[in-house]
Amino acid sequence: MRWQESNYNIRVPLTRNRALLFNTLSRGLCLLDADELAFLDQVPDTGGAVDQVLAGQLAGQGFLVRHGTDELAIVKGRYDRQRYDPGAVTVTVCPTLACNFGCDYCFQGADKSVQKMSAAVQDGIVALYRRLLVQLPKLHTLRAMWYGGEPLLKPAVIHNLARQFIDINKERGINFSASMISNGSKLDRAMAEALYGCGLRSVQITLDGARPDHDARRHYLSGKGSYRRIIENVKSWIYDFPIHVDLRVNIDERNKVGVKALIDDLAEQGLACLPNLKMYFAPVESITQGCHAIADKMVGKIQYGLLEAELVRYAFERGLAELPYPPSFMGICSALRPFDFIVVPNGDVHKCWDTVSFPEKKIGSVFDLEALFTNHSPAQREWEQFNPFGNATCRSCKILPNCASFCAHKFVNAEETLGEASLPCPSLKYSINEKIVLRAEKQGFITKDDYTPEMIQTEPLSLCAEVFVKDHYLHKAAPAAYAHNG
């Protein structure tokens, strides 16, 4: 049998002529010695005359494929099955776009609507869900997402809709769970208990550093800090209710040096090594008109990638983060799934979280379901037509199976982004080697003596022919190449 090396292999060099090998499609990870690496290099030139046992072992993890295999077609097939899965939908509801915080980097901007979602709009959301049940006879899972603004400024809307969803799903035998994006300021024990009874199983809460950094960035509209209240709220219920908490840390030039102090404080507060609390990191980016003012505060792509890898290691070692493992198709979000919808307080329907504060970006309304389902607006069709496989840069990238263009908003609304935020690539493109090494080290494949930081540093140009850093491309491609789908 003739073999060829997978196009999605990533080699991370180690000492003694060895390497870690990771396949972004199969997500297989192994350690190869010098002889095995030499075998892998010789496979294309030897026809069928190779050690078929070793070849079979490598093929079993996706590192080798049969000669002539169209791996891009395999990736696209898996992508399509996940994007167009008719068995699950997510309905995102914004009870209000108002917020009790005044974060200067908020992509929704400072001038937020204070409109509360009316009973008529809530009825429209229930009608929307009933229409989905008709449209998708194979539906088996509904995921509700409570979003804002700060959704807990209007908890009655959440309780009302959750109860109706639960009742409908019991009648139909459909699974239901809910998640929430909240600043955590109102998520005390009583609220957590009530929401758990309404199906809440996960919540994202943001802490942007230990108390001084966080309170300077994520304060109440009055200017009062919020750190202590958030910590007290989480500690009041985290040990008793199996609601998973994703602690998000937004990082820019102003707080990047203080994130380790947050990790230390959370550990000292007794929040480490919990099964239902883990933290992750995200770069602050100027991605909408609402946050253009902080464009000069962003951390550069390469610098951020290295910083994130360092912070993930530190947080894991302190019991506050999971071992990194490159995911599959993280670019598939509600914006791209045809029957996932976001509803804002006035009944407008959007596809992307980043557009909810901008009425001109809506795709329809809960008061015109026929148009939403059959006579799609130009805005709705633009999301539907987005295709990462139509972009030459994405199509040729080794991390396509992990990334899948990562952020469609940055393509569809490319004119909104400033500086390095205009590249939709995730931080993984600048830190995948470091994350692979961390996983291998903590799982006992290797030790710290098997590499140096310089040896394993991720080289973005080894993954993809075009990389954008510091307001210019390392390749000749023009920025406009990222503004459309090929």
What report would you give on this structure?
The protein has helices spanning 34-42, 52-60, 71-83, 119-135, 155-172, 189-197, 211-217, 227-237, 259-268, 301-317, 369-373, 378-385, 392-395, 400-403, 409-412, 432-442, 453-456; strands at residues 3-5, 9-13, 19-23, 29-32, 64-66, 88-93, 141-146, 175-181, 200-206, 244-251, 277-283, 341-343, 348-350, 364-365, 468-469, 472-473. By secondary structure, the protein is α/β, with parallel strands linked by helices. It has two domains: 3-75, no CATH class; 76-425 and 464-486, TIM Barrel (Alpha-Beta Barrel), CATH 3.20.20. Helix 4 runs parallel beside helix 5 (155-172) and helix 10 (301-317) runs parallel beside helix 16. It is globular, with a radius of gyration of 23 Å. It starts with a strand and ends in a 13-residue tail after the last strand. Mean pLDDT is 92; it is low at 468-486.
Strand content: 15-25%
Query: Briefly, what CATH class of the largest domain?
Result: Alpha Beta
Distance between the termini: 36 Å
Sequence of strands across the biggest β-sheet: 11-10-9-8-7-6-12-13-14
Regions with little confidence, pLDDT below 50 for 5+ residues: 468-486
**Rough outline:** globular
Salient structural properties:
three-stranded antiparallel sheet, 15% strand, 17 helices, disordered C terminus, nine-stranded mixed sheet, 486 residues, globular, TIM Barrel, 2 domains, alpha/beta, 33% helix
